[in-house]
Amino acid sequence: MAEEQAKHRQGLEKVVIESDIKDSKTGLYFGFIIGLVAIISGTICIVYGHSIAGGVLGGSAVPGLAAVFVYGSRQRRREREAKQQQISAK
After folding, report:
1. Of 7, 48, 65, 89, which sits most exposed with the smallest number of CB within 10 A?
2. In percent, how much of the chain has pLDDT > 90?
């Protein structure tokens, strides 16, 4: 009975990890698409004579995405550290 419970728990953990990996990849793909669209839109605005709008649109995409990436990386690191402390306390 304990072995079945351990296998079940391990199966659930595997599903959660696979889901987290899929979500992470999906976020990266969408972030890339949003950044690319913003940069291309800004370039098109500049080409058609709207330099201020194009600069704001194209220039705000990269720092915005970089900030989200850095924030997400810090959050994951904090979660890992908290989990590690939780494991060490046992």
Report:
1. 89
2. 2
